Amino acid sequence: MKWVGWIKYIIFLLPIGGLTACGESVSHPQMVNEWPEIYPDYIGVTIPAGIAPMNFDVIGEGVYERVDVQVEGSNGSMHVNGKDISFPLGKWHELLDEHKGDSLVFTVSVKEDGGWKQYRPFAMYVSEHPIDYGVVYRRIAPGYEVYSQMGIYERNLSNFEEHGLLVNTLVPGMCVNCHAFNRTDPTEMSLHIRGKHGATLMQYDGERELLDTKTEQTISNCVYPYWHPSGEYIAYSTNKTGQSFHAKKEKLIEVFDSASDVLVYHPKTHQLTSSELLQGSGSFETFPAFSSDGKKLYFCTSQAQKMPEDYEKVRYHLCSIDFSVEDGSFGNRIDTLVNADKTGKSILFPRPSYDGKYLMYTVCDYGTFSIWHKEADLWLMDLDKGCSRPISEVNSEDVESFHNWSSNSHWFLFSSRREDGRYTRIYLASIDEEGNIGKPFLLPQEHPSEYYGESLYSFNVPDFVSEPVRLNPKELEAEIVSDHRKSVKYE
Amino acid sequence: MKKCLVKYWKILLSVAVGAVIGGGVYKTYPAHIIYQEMFQMFLYDGDYAWERIMVPGGMACYLSDFLSQFCYNPKFGALFVAVLCVGIQRLLWRCMKQQGVSSFYYPLSFLPLLPVLHFMGDENALFSFPISLVMTLGVMWGYGLTYSLRFRWIYVCMMLPLLYGMAGAVHFIFVVWLVTNELHRAAAERKYAPVGLALVALTLSVLCPFLCSLTLQYSFTRLMTGVEYYRYSDVLLPSEIWAAVLLAFLPGAVPHFPVIHKRAWIGVAIQMGVVTVGGWHYIKDGLNDEKEEALQYYCLVTQQQWQKIIQKAEKKHPESPFSMTCLNLALAKQGDLGDRMFEFSQQGTGGLLPAFVRDFTSPLPTAEAYYHMGMVNTTQRYYFEAMEAIPNYQKSARCIKRLAETNIVNGDYKVAEKYLLLLQKTHLYEEWAENAMTYLGNEEKINVHPEWGKLRRMRVEEDFFFNGKEHPEMLGKVFEHNRQNRMASDYRLAYLLLKQDLDAFMTCYETGEYAEAVYIPRSHQEALAYMWLQKHGDFKDIPWKISPSITQGMMEFARVYMSKQKNANELLRRKYRGTYWEYLLNVRKG
């Protein structure tokens, strides 16, 4: 659908160009000593040079006739004037390239009742660190058990192009989830397909195969994948997942596991392996993730509880176990990095930065599925010092949940429901060499208010990709429908 | 007048047939028409149009959605069906005429309407199919106007991909017709060029879906058979194939039929008679009266026409659990559930609060029942799930409206705003959405709203998990939270009666939960009398106010039942029709 995006883009650029050319200049504005109320809130954010135009809308002003934005930097400027703010793509990238490590100042003026109002200028900081090619996420309505159109989508971060990688219009009834790339490299990919033609899609070593990952010895198909940095292994968990529905207004859904184990898959031999320490009958183990050097496997574990009755008693510790890449064996000891009994919170989704400095994870009051927990926040562990802190720079009153790192570990993205408490959106934030974290920004859209305001989709499980994912829908459909699956063995 | 009739008989016949079709649809199938409106959300919005149009057959789908939004009024829907049918017939006739077909065979141009109407008799048939046929016939007719080979080449190369883009896989009708036409021409003219054109058209017709399959997230099969003529995209009905076959071959075949000039009107009348009589049986075969009945019940529920629902059921008892759910809701809303529910042929708990099914229709009346009982989260879930289950992945403005309401009641204003913004872009819900917008964040205004304010007062504060296997417990908690919530109480007791869990039913009365009740509904009295008599043998010390006619009836019922008469059950069933005792007899027999 790339061509569709381009045609759309050209059509939209025409009026924008026209507006830019025919803009009215701001004359004798009334100065307002406040920042403009804009959506998304991009005031003071740190952005990568390769990011798509950070278009925003002025809100809180009621109806305005025109809006004017003057962008000033030390090496150049840009000006837009029209009904909406839409920065021209080429000029935007030129300006950002020239201001890496510098800032851009945005002066917003609004024409109301024939007169102009000019707001206090605000800055956006352009990071020296580049960002990856794009983001891949699952786009799905935030529902309960049934799903309508949904799929795995790829978004080019340098523009507004989004296209479906695998959408359930291809094979009706199919549900796709649990996509994972090896440190943002899409040539190594794992993706899970549920439904009549269920399978685990594995792209590895230039080959693609569809696996049946359920074995007699394991609880379920393999989910929550995480690649070993060598690409030789993938850690998965197998989960018996259920959900219940709350009656009171503050909560809607509770998703829980009533059993779960952690395993590691070796694609070359099609073998699953695990350790007794990762398959305790009295405990739930889930959310595995390899350390950046591949020598440890992080995971979360909780004492098993009677589910769903005791759902509020489930609290996951953050643990690790040694892993040997040579023979795929595990250590004989589990280290507890964050003890849930001490914190009284549940630790979920550990994600180590690829440079080995940090470990980011989600903290919520209890349970395993933080996206329905308003209190869920992101925390960051400094792996050298061993200390953790809540990432107050990015946390909000509502849910912050799933997160991932960019290939250079200077950016991370996360899903949050801060806007309306229901629809998950993707935010990006920077982290510098000293660990300073920038103000996060909402994934830019061409018409952000309209796009996010009216979209009936959540954007789940976001991850960076360093290049476009290569999947041919026609081939893929034939493979999925064929029902030819390679069985995996449990060692 | 006669001159006029002779000159315009064809068009007059078409108009008459159109009127019969429109009238027939309106009279016999109004709920099916309204049903079309329930599962679409046509937005007056560029992005929506773009998204719909950018798939093969997208323009037909877009126009179909456009028409469907007006189907809340069955008159409009019936009119659309009639106009589309007449459009198909008239265009087909144009094409036939281009081939030199005599007016004698005018009635045969009505033939394809039979499979079209048979198809439209299915509630999941979409307007996109007849619209696509009109587009295709338009292109066929246009092709007939191009005589030179060069123009035909240009026409095919331009119009075939365009037709595929706009109407989808029905472009094969055009191609089949074109191929037969060109081959015929090649034979007549003894030239090969028309054969080349036919081959190119054939190649193009397959190439279009093939190229789309390389970039679009649709399977090749689906692109070859049509993306969205039917709500279940992977279903291709025989009636669709019949319609396509007739449209593709009739214009080429009929010119070879013999023409009768003497008393031609008799031949025309015979043809018309055969088409009408045969057609009526075929079309009738495609209609489903049971579904129409069920949909009529649900339509009345959406209009909150409780009394009309009861009146309808009084004439003919509902046959499906779906309709029964609607009737029980109406009885509860009128405060008559406990008194009158067993006057109708109850179908167990599945006709009161059916278990959730992953379907886009069946959860809707149940969701309404939960809504009126103040179970806001459950209503939200049922509506959301129903909308998500729409097989062609469309949204439903009607469901979105209820979702906006449940979010307003729950105080989730941002989410409600999202839904209202969308509804503001619709035709039917725009005004309502604008008004609802004024409630966002305005607690006082919501609290005094006749429906939302009441729901807020009924909504539970103590949390529990929804459990479809423990309805009475859940409903008990809802009733406990607000003792004014009579519907929750009525539903709880009705559920226990239908489940024949009479011990639990008795417990509700024995523990004094209903001590405040000044009036005990009839079916409750019957159940209490039944249980009491079994334990105590007479009604001397019965603590509840049971009507003497019921105690006497119970005594008599017990006497006959215990007498072990040969036809005791039959006698009792006849004598105690409409009582809870009859329900017990029926269920226990089953």
Describe the overall structure.
The complex is a heterodimer of chains A (491) and B (590). Chain A has 5 helices and 35 strands. In chain A, β23 and β24 form a beta hairpin. The longest helix of chain A has 20 residues. The N terminus of chain A is likely disordered. Among the domains of chain B are: 286 residues, no CATH class; 90 residues, no CATH class. In chain B, 49% of the residues are buried.
Q: What is the topological layout?
A:
The complex is a heterodimer of chains A (491) and B (590).
Chain A: H1 2-21, E1 30-32, E2 38-39, E3 46-47, E4 57-58, E5 66-73, E6 76-82, H2 89-97, E7 103-112, E8 115-119, E9 122-126, E10 134-140, E11 151-156, E12 162-167, E13 175-182, E14 185-194, E15 199-204, E16 207-212, E17 222-227, E18 234-245, E19 253-266, E20 271-273, E21 283-290, E22 296-303, E23 317-324, E24 329-338, H3 340-343, E25 346-352, E26 358-364, E27 377-382, E28 387-390, E29 400-405, E30 411-416, E31 425-430, E32 441-442, H4 448-454, E33 458-465, H5 473-482, E34 486-487, E35 489-490
Parallel strand pairs in A: 1-8, 3-9, 16-34, 20-35
Antiparallel strand pairs in A: 2-4, 5-6, 5-7, 7-8, 7-9, 10-11, 10-33, 11-12, 13-14, 14-15, 15-16, 17-18, 18-19, 19-20, 21-22, 22-23, 23-24, 25-26, 26-27, 27-28, 29-30, 30-31, 31-32
Chain B: H1 2-28, H2 30-38, H3 46-53, H4 58-68, H5 74-98, H6 113-120, H7 128-145, H8 149-167, H9 171-189, H10 193-215, H11 220-225, H12 238-253, H13 264-285, H14 289-302, H15 306-315, H16 321-333, H17 337-340, H18 363-373, H19 376-388, H20 397-409, H21 413-423, H22 430-437, H23 443-447, H24 452-458, H25 471-481, H26 486-499, H27 502-510, H28 522-536, H29 548-562, H30 568-575, H31 580-589
Largest interface: A-B, 46 and 49 residues
Rough outline of chain A: globular
User: How many β strands of chain A by DSSP?
Assistant: 35
Morphology call of chain B: elongated
Fraction of residues in helix of chain B: 55-70%
Which spans of chain A of ≥5 residues are poorly predicted at pLDDT below 50?
A: 1-6, 8-22
* Mean of residue pLDDT values of chain B: 94
- Structural class computed from helices and strand pairing of chain B: mainly alpha
Rg of chain B, rounded, reads 30 Å
Largest sheet composition of chain A: 7 strands, mixed
| SSE class of chain A | mainly beta
> The CATH topology of the largest domain in chain A, please?
Neuraminidase
Task: Report mean pLDDT of chain A, rounded to a whole number.
Answer: 93
Helix content percent band of chain A:
10-25%
Number of domains of chain A: 2
**At the fourth CATH level, what is the homologous superfamily of the largest domain in chain A?**
TolB, C-terminal domain
